[in-house]
Write a structure and sequence with these properties.
- The protein is of the alpha/beta class.
- The protein is built from six helices and 13 strands.
- Strands 2-1-3-4-13-12-11 form a seven-stranded mixed sheet.
- Strand 1, helix 1 and strand 2 form a beta-alpha-beta unit.
- The longest helix is centred in the C-terminal third of the chain and has 13 residues.
Length: 196
């Protein structure tokens, strides 16, 4: 299987590559548009800041390329947020694959810490990413911004308020959590993506 990881100015690309290797897949890390378009599966990872990253994607033409991919695409963390219409982080217009916005967590109580960091459960799953799942599986999150529950929500988590832990529309899948850092549960999600 030909798996491409989008190379751009965002962290976490190597850990996604290592997760693929653990599944026996040699992914290619690339910004080459021909290679990305020819891949069987594309992973769009990300750790970073929305405005700077979108500026980079626009400057390199990767913004239009990602939107027009026809094979299964998996966005992770910032990758998922950039696939939305708009982010409050840097007042940024994003890729608009998912017609929803990304909002900043606002602590409601003293004990609410931002960023939301660590293990939390996902539930109400309704995507092939979660084939074989029972309710309340634990996955690993690190984020200060969230996507509200919307018509593309494929899994939910509650932290301060319910939010989208995953999204799905057509050939585009995305997780707010990091499957590559979520142990055997995360590996199952990545394997499910490869099997789509």
């Amino acid at each position: 299987m030909n798996v491409a990881i989008v190379k751009y100015n965002a962290g976490n690309i190597r850990s996604v590559d290592y997760a693929m290797k653990r599944l026996g897949v040699e992914a290619v890390i690339t910004a080459d548009k021909e290679v990305l378009m020819a891949a069987d599966k594309v992973i769009f990872p990300g750790v970073g800041e929305a405005e700077t990253t979108m500026n980079h994607l626009r400057a390199t033409g990767l913004d239009e390329l990602i939107k027009n991919l026809r094979q299964p695409v998996l966005g992770i963390c910032l990758g998922m947020q950039l696939m939305c219409r708009y982010s409050e982080e840097g007042d940024t217009n994003c890729l608009n694959i998912f017609d929803t916005e990304v909002k900043r967590f606002l602590p409601a109580r003293h004990e609410d810490k931002v960023p939301h960091m660590g293990w939390n459960t996902i539930g109400e799953v309704n995507s092939r990413l979660f084939n074989g799942f029972t309710e309340e599986e634990f996955v690993y999150f690190v984020h200060s911004f969230y996507v509200p529950v919307n018509e593309c929500t494929a899994a939910q988590t509650h932290y301060i308020l319910p939010f989208s832990a995953a999204l799905h529309k057509d050939n585009f899948y995305a997780t707010q959590f990091h499957p590559e850092k979520s142990g055997t549960v995360g590996e199952r999600i990545l394997k499910n993506f490869l099997d789509i």
